[in-house]
């Protein structure tokens, strides 16, 4: 163990604590339905695989900044899919999946001891991890009044949210931008689930209705893992404030944080095509309807969950008891306490199983 092991300053890896429930769910005679992690199960679209294969013979180093075609495809996709305009392709930077970009963001932006990072009250764990890796203080706050006179360096937001599926409206996002501008904070908006909305419209932080076309101090992080089933490829990007993106690029060039060339080609194809994305969204929509109906019939209350890849459920009991109840039925879900101290009475149910497994889960409920 190194003298100052970094891992000692980080939370326990939460999934390890699910081993018992997983073993129980696996012992179900008809097999486990794993709705815990939220990993894609549907195959990668042929046009993306072909793009990857088409350059698999190329031996040279890829660029950290990414091929111009990839950056242009990202700009076009953001405009076409989400109405985000005014991005120069130079302000797009590929990520080796967005988890690493989020985890390293405070460090790459030069934050350190004493700096404050604000994260959502119920949050994807990597925001806190990223802040802790940089030695920053962490404050969980959804409302800006909670911040009082604090002057955060960086604010992570996530709409649609993992795990709650909550969408922040345009007014809320505008307030975040105004607040950040007034205190010179950077806003990093994790937009992993922007393409998966069911009952609410979700807007990017770079949407002109939110930021009036001014991207200063704003970064949007986009993953292709869920919308294009590319979790295995590790594919995402960040864009927004050109000065911040240039700084991230400079540091990442030195640190060797480079997206492999064949993955860049795959991303370019994925960002250029909306059909596979629409098909995938429709698959999730159907699975969501089946699960939503089943959990409601089983007596659960579904909170938020208007977008994203998860249902956020409660039966007003300790979340670990609910996890056990599902495990008895061969279904594995994630306890709310993974996502913050304020969510001990919810569980998160992912929509990411095959149609056959989703039907099995519904019939067991
Ligand atoms: C909110 C959120 N952000 C980022 C990620 C990271 O995705 P990836 O590293 O696959 O791009 C996830 C993955 O589940 C997520 O839920």
UniProtKB/TrEMBL annotation:
Enzyme Commission number(s) of this protein: 2.6.1.17
Gene from which the chain derives: dapC
Cofactor dependency: pyridoxal 5'-phosphate
GO molecular function, one term: succinyldiaminopimelate transaminase activity
Domain of life: Bacteria
Domain Aminotransferase class I/classII large: 32-365
Enzyme class: transferase
Protein name from the UniProt record: Succinyldiaminopimelate transaminase
Keyword Kinase: no
NCBIfam families: DapC_actino
Pfam name, any one: Aminotran_1_2
Record's keyword annotation contains Transferase: yes
UniProt keyword terms in alphabetical order: Aminotransferase, Transferase
Gene3D superfamilies: Aspartate Aminotransferase, domain 1, Type I PLP-dependent aspartate aminotransferase-like (Major domain)
């Amino acid at each position: 163990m190194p003298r100052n092991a970094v891992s000692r300053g980080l939370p326990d890896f939460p999934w390890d604590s699910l081993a018992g429930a997983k073993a129980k769910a696996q012992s179900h005679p008809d097999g486990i339905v794993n709705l815990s992690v939220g990993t894609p199960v549907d195959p990668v679209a042929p046009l993306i695989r072909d793009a990857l294969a088409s350059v698999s013979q190329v031996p040279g180093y890829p660029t950290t900044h990414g091929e111009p075609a990839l950056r242009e495809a990202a700009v076009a996709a953001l405009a076409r899919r989400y109405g985000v305009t005014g991005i120069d392709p130079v302000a797009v930077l590929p990520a080796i999946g967005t988890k690493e970009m989020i985890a390293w963001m405070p460090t790459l932006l030069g934050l350190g001891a004493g700096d404050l990072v604000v994260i959502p009250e119920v949050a994807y764990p990597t925001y806190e991890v990223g802040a802790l890796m940089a030695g920053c203080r962490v404050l969980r706050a959804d409302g800006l009044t909670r911040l009082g006179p604090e002057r955060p360096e960086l604010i992570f937001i996530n709409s649609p949210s993992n795990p709650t599926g909550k969408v922040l409206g345009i007014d809320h996002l505008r307030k975040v931008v105004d607040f950040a501008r007034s205190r010179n904070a950077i806003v990093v908006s994790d937009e992993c689930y922007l393409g998966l909305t069911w009952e609410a419209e979700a807007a990017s932080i770079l949407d002109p209705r939110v930021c009036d076309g001014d991207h200063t101090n704003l970064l949007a992080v986009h993953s292709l893992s869920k919308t294009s089933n590319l979790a295995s490829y590790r594919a995402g990007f960040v864009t927004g404030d050109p000065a911040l993106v240039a700084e991230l690029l400079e540091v990442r060039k030195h640190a060797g944080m480079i997206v492999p060339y064949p993955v860049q080609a795959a991303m370019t194809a994925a960002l250029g095509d909306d059909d596979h994305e629409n098909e995938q969204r429709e698959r999730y929509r159907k699975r969501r309807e089946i699960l939503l109906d089943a959990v409601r019939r089983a007596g659960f209350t579904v909170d938020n969950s208007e977008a994203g890849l998860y249902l956020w459920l409660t039966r007003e009991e300790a979340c670990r008891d609910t996890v056990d109840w599902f495990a008895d039925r061969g279904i594995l879900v994630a306890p709310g306490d993974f996502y913050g101290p304020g969510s001990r009475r919810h569980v998160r149910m992912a929509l990411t199983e095959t149609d056959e497994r989703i039907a099995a889960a519904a019939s067991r409920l």
